C-alpha cells in the first residue's frame, strides 16, 4: 500500500512537468519561428508618408524653375500684358530701329553697316565724318536720314551742334540752313529732329521745314523730344510723309534697361500694328542689338526700314 501511494505522487509531478515542458516548447517554437520567418508588408502610417527621411533624396517641384527662361522675356512693370503671338498664317507686325547721332564715330558706323538687317541711320550734318558715314550706310543698304539739329528749350546753354534750326530764324533762313545740312548728308531720304523741344513745338518753324521737305520729296520722323510737338500736324499738312518715334531704346544706357525697352518696342508693334524705336551708338545699345536683332522674328515682329513706316 505505501508503495502504491508513492508511485501515484511521483506520477502527478511527472505529469505536471510534462505539461509544463510542452507549453514551454510550444512558446519557444513560436518565438523562434517569428524571428526566422520573413515578415509581410506592414501598413505605413500616414505621418511617415508625408515626412520623408532627411537621408532620402527628395523630389521637389523645382524643375520648372531650373528651365531656361522663355524666349520671350517678361514684360516690365506698368507695361500692358503680352499679346498672343500671331497665328502662323498672319504677317508679323513691322518695327523700325533708327540709330541717331551718327557722323562722329566711324567704328559705330562700320559696325551698323555690317549688320545684315534693315536698321536705319540718322547722320548729324556739318561734321568731318558726316558725308562718309552717310555714304557707307547707303552702300550697306540702310536708310539714311538727316538728323536735323533743332533748337531745344534752354538754348544756347543746351546746344545741338552745327547746322541748327532756330526759332529766331526767318522762313528763308530756315530753308537755307536745312538745304545746307542736307548737302552734307548725301543720300538722305528723310529727316528727323535732333533735340528740338522748342522748334518742334513752333508751328511756323515746322511749316518752313515742311516746305523744303515737300519740294525734295523727303519724309519726316518726329523724334518726339517734347509732348508739345506740333511737327506731325504741320508737316503732314504740307503733304509730307510722316511717322513718330514710339520708344527710346536707351534713355538709360545699360544693357538690361535697353533689353526692357526693346521688349516694349515688340509689344507696342504687336498691340498697335507697327512701332518705331530710336537708339544711339552707345556700346550697350550696339551690344544688345548685336544679340537681339536676329531674334526679332522669333519674338513676333519683323524689322523694316523706317521709310516703310512713314505715311
**Total count of strands:** 9
Structural class: alpha/beta
Could you give a short account of the major beta sheet? 9 strands, parallel
What is the end-to-end distance? 143 Å
The count of helical stretches stands at: 10
The poorly predicted ranges are 4-8, 34-88
SSE topology string: HHHEHEHEHEHEHEEHEHE
Mean pLDDT: 82
Give the percentage of residues in beta strands: 5-15%
Give the % helix: 40-55%
What does this structure look like?
The chain is α/β, with parallel strands linked by helices and 311 residues long. Helices cover 40% and strands 14% of the residues. The protein is built from 10 helices and 9 strands. It has helices spanning 2-36, 46-50, 63-66, 106-114, 130-139, 171-183, 203-216, 231-237, 255-272, 283-292, and strands at residues 94-102, 120-123, 144-150, 190-195, 219-222, 242-244, 247-248, 275-279, 302-303. Strands 1, 2, 3, 4, 5, 6, 7, 8 and 9 form a 9-stranded parallel sheet that branches. Helix 9 (255-272) links the parallel strand 7 (247-248) and strand 8. The longest helix is centred in the N-terminal third of the chain and has 35 residues, at 2-36. It is rod-shaped. Residues 4-8 and 34-88 have low confidence and may be disordered.
Amino acid at each position: 500500500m505505501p508503495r502504491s501511494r508513492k508511485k501515484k505522487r511521483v506520477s502527478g509531478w511527472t505529469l505536471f512537468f510534462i505539461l509544463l515542458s510542452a507549453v514551454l516548447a510550444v512558446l519557444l517554437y513560436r518565438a523562434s519561428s517569428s524571428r526566422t520567418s520573413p515578415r509581410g508588408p506592414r501598413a505605413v502610417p500616414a505621418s511617415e508618408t508625408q515626412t520623408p527621411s532627411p537621408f532620402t533624396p527628395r523630389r521637389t517641384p523645382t524643375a520648372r524653375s531650373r528651365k531656361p527662361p522663355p524666349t520671350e522675356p517678361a514684360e516690365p512693370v506698368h507695361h500692358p500684358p503680352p499679346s498672343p503671338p500671331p497665328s502662323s498664317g498672319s504677317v508679323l507686325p513691322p518695327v523700325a530701329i533708327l540709330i541717331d547721332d551718327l557722323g562722329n564715330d566711324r567704328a559705330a558706323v562700320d559696325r551698323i553697316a555690317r549688320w545684315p538687317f534693315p536698321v536705319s541711320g540718322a547722320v548729324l550734318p556739318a561734321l568731318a565724318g558726316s558725308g562718309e558715314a552717310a555714304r557707307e550706310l547707303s552702300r550697306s543698304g540702310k536708310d539714311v536720314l538727316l538728323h536735323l539739329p533743332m533748337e531745344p528749350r534752354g538754348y544756347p546753354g543746351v546746344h545741338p551742334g552745327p547746322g541748327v534750326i532756330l526759332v529766331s530764324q526767318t522762313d528763308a533762313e530756315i530753308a537755307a540752313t536745312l538745304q545746307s545740312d542736307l548737302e552734307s548728308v548725301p543720300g538722305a531720304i528723310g529727316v528727323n529732329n535732333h533735340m528740338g523741344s522748342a522748334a518742334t513745338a513752333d508751328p511756323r518753324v515746322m511749316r518752313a521745314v515742311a516746305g523744303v521737305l515737300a519740294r525734295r520729296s523727303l519724309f519726316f520722323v518726329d523724334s518726339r523730344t517734347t509732348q508739345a510737338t506740333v511737327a506731325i500736324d504741320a508737316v503732314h499738312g504740307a503733304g509730307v510723309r510722316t511717322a513718330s518715334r514710339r520708344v527710346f531704346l536707351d534713355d538709360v544706357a545699360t544693357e538690361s534697361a535697353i533689353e526692357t525697352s526693346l521688349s516694349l518696342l515688340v509689344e507696342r508693334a504687336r498691340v498697335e500694328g507697327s512701332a518705331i524705336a530710336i537708339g544711339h551708338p552707345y556700346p550697350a545699345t550696339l551690344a544688345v542689338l548685336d544679340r537681339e536683332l536676329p531674334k526679332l522674328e522669333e519674338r513676333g515682329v519683323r524689322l523694316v526700314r523706317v521709310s516703310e513706316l512713314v505715311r
